[in-house]
Amino acid sequence: MSSDEPTSPGSGSPASEPNHGRRIAVIWFVLAAVATPIVVLVWGPHLPPGDATLQAQHQQEINAILAGIVTPVVLAIIVYAIYTLIVFRDRGEPGPDGPPIRGDRRIATAWIVFTAAVVVFVVSYGTYDWLGPGVGSGSGQGPDPIARPDGAKPLEVQVIAQQWQFTFRYPSYGGLETQDLVIPDSRYIEFHVTSLDVIHSFWAVELGVKADAVPGADNVVFVLPDRTGPFQIRCAELCGLWHGQMYQLTARVETEAGFRTWIAEQEQLFGDVTRYLPPYAHVYYPQPEYRAG
Amino acid sequence: MAKTAIRPETGPRAGWRSLFGHGVIAGLAFAAVGFVVGAWLGGVIGRDWAGVSGTEQNDPALVLGYVFAVVGWLWGLGFFRYPAHRLRGEEPSAYAEEREGEGIRRFFGVSTDHKVVGIQYLVGSLSIFLIGGANAMLIRTQLLSSDGTIFAPNEYLTIVGLHGSLMIMTMSAAVVGGFGNFLVPLMIGTRRTAFPRVQALAFWLIPAAALVLLSSVLVGGFPSGWTGYTPLGDQARVGVNSYYVAFGLVAIALTLVGIDLFVTIVTMRAPGLTWGRLPLFVWGVFATTILMALSSPMLLAATFMAVLDRTVGTVNFIAPMGGSPFLWENLFWFFGHPEVYILALPGFGIVLELIPVFSRKTVWGYRLAVAGILGVALLSFSVWQHHLFVSGINSALRPFYSLSTELISIPTGLIFLCALGTLWRGRIRLTVPMLFCLAFIFNFLVGGATGIYLSDVPSNATTHGSYFVLAHFHYTIMGGLVFALFAAIYYWLPKMTGLRFREGLSKLHFWTMFIAFNSTFLPLFAAGILGMPRRVSSYDPAFHGLNMWASISAFVLGASMLVFIVNFVLSQFLKREPAEPNPWGSRGLEWQLPTPIPPHDFDEIPLVRSAPYEYGVPDAPPVADLHPSRTGNDEVRIG
């Protein structure tokens, strides 16, 4: 990083003056060498959204990588700024204005190359991750997802948002609609998110899943749960009066056997209702709401 | 102002007639009449419509009321006299309220003096800023408890929407409208902007927009936040019309101010003021005016379409009938993301302008800084869909928007490099404006670093729509622009009003604001990434500690604004101490003028002789020759 600092060799400093550029570099290096591993290795594995699903694991890994990039850069700027403010502060002694340093081509080039390299790395790695091993990395991909899981057909679950609750339909169980969300672990879930009224956003916090629910649109998101346990569902897009109360705390990931038991119970409870529901579809157009005119 | 072609009006109105002169009072009266007429007309038109009769929701009446009220407001202020005279084929005349002059009265009517308009903008923006800030205090009061018991949900959402809308409105106008109008002509050596009447019109639309927006509380408020997403905005009751009309007015005002200052900077620079000598603040304003002129019309179009949906039954944004909610999202953010840089770029300009003065150094890398400013402006048009990463639009576009968003960190990095490089080996004076600039750098650093997470698609899946986003953009807008705004106020107000601030109170204001700001918004990053969505009136009790901390810090932040108000009132009104003409020893052209600045600014159009940042340069000529005819330089043309 020292080459990125605006040092100016030969700018007329007295021989007795310390080499400020080297001092800044040393202070920065020590701090960054201590802080960066702590952030990445100690804090990283505890970063949100946790590791309950493959998608959450990928987000967590990227959050840790980004923290590993951001930490030394932020430290460099802060160390440099504090150092210059202490060393070059005007203490009121008479003297001339600062030397007219108008820039340094090498430093500018190094800085541009460095920031460009960071940009290229961050964008390529993020894109590679969600298109490849992250399989969408938990964000809604619209009706025609380009990142799809290989192998066995995922379990399709529809998330229907309306003011102010989420309900769920299981097309492989005859379009059964439930009030709670339970999914099996160890196989892919294919959420189809839609809305009946205004825009909502389906945020399954611990799963690392977020997809807007838009009326008349189908938003697909894949997730592979890694272990069983409860997770929260929250609406993440302003949807009117009770937006803040639009959450569900009953959702959970079950084992395959537990899921089968649960869905059998649900069929007992709600199976009779299914025939009164609209046939399963990826979008349900609500009745048009006529206004003036 | 060039007065040669203008015939002065024959004296002020005498006696009782002066009560009916054009001004704010007449504007408000005409607006009230206009509202009644418009609402009556809307009532007549909508009487038999199914969506109106029997619903107590008369959208056409309210919208037409607003439109006629705004026309009445402008009429009462006197904006139609000039075009009316021209239409009748009469000579144009300079009306009393349009003339340069002295006295407090000129601030309460239409003035075409760029200095008066600048101060009108500043006072207006700061008033709106304080109302928006009071709304923020109410929001944090509600969030003191996790179950949201203080305000009803509709009240809370209206407060949230007002806070966001008022802040966006005021911050778009404060720096470019206030300091831009006041300073740009002084910095480029001209006596006025290119279109002084347009400049005045752009200002007087802002109070109209603020009043229209605030009036929504009288008709039930609006639930859709500052983004006004449909179908929520379509579903909402009549109060949401206030939001759409107000933002439409803001869009017109931003477009006009952008065009005016753009033309001014391009065509009216003094001789010798080459592009390479243009102050960096002017560069910041210049880039902003491009964004304003090109992106704000999109907002006007979008709000117009939304109002048509609500009033005459078009279906632009209504999915089941062939419209699309995505259309609003795209139109809105096509304006909305350049808008973010409309807020940020003037802040960059202020910081780059002030740091050389207080480091006693030339700018490190002037051309790089300009490239950074223009690069940010150019890229800002290509990033808007990062607001829609999880929305369900075609995900094949994401790599492009992720890249274009990240690319902005390269020109932003250049601006940082130039600002920080200028500190190197300077004689740094930690004055109050400089402290605000340094705080800007720190806050924007945090805001920029967290922006990387939001631009990254996998990371965005968690952070999107959460308090993480909220903390991020408060770091860039409040921590960035508002700190830069206060830097500018402490730096330039002694020139604008000729009065000094109190040093102790100014420092107290800075330190309470800086510490309380960081203490408020740092915990909210954690709340967001752990699972707290934005705009909720109640939340998971697990976040109660973080929210308590943020709320108490926010109240301290609010108190720091009271310190500023006390400081302002004391130094500007109660205990006035005259400021020196150039207390900071700045080389800027505006500082070479006497204090207070004479109404006509420059006795002669100056001849600019060198760049404004030649601190410590041996044999640097003075920045400009203010009387070229006396020194015989008036024939010289440089650049």
Structure, briefly:
Chain A is of the alpha+beta class and 293 residues long. Chain A is built from 4 helices and 12 strands.
Question: Would you kindly provide a written description of the structure presented here, covering whatever features stand out?
Answer:
The complex is a heterodimer of chains A (293) and B (639). With 293 residues, chain A is an alpha+beta fold. Chain A has two domains: 2-8 and 18-90 and 105-133, no CATH class; 155-276, Cupredoxins -  blue copper proteins (Immunoglobulin-like), CATH 2.60.40. Chain A is 34% helix and 18% strand. Chain A is elongated and about 90 Å long. Chain A starts with 19 loop residues before the first helix and ends in a 23-residue tail after the last helix. Residues 1-13 of chain A have low confidence and may be disordered. Chain B has 19 helices and four strands. Chain B folds into two domains: 1-7 and 21-97, no CATH class; 111-574, Cytochrome C Oxidase, Chain A (Up-down Bundle), CATH 1.20.210. Chain B starts with 6 loop residues before the first strand and ends in an 8-residue tail after the last helix. In chain B, helix 14 packs parallel to helix 17 (503-530). A two-stranded parallel ribbon of chain B has the order 1-2. In chain B, strands 3-4 form a two-stranded antiparallel sheet. Chain B is mainly α. Chain B has helices at residues 24-46, 59-77, 81-87, 114-142, 153-188, 196-214, 232-235, 240-267, 280-311, 325-359, 366-379, 398-407, 409-423, 432-455, 457-463, 467-497, 503-530, 544-574, 628-631, and strands at 7-8, 93-94, 607-608, 624-625. Chain B is globular. Helix content of chain B is 62%, strand content 1%. The chains are: A alpha+beta (293), B mainly alpha (639). Chains A and B meet through helix 2, helix 3 and strand 7 of A and helix 5, helix 7, helix 9, helix 10 and helix 11 of B.
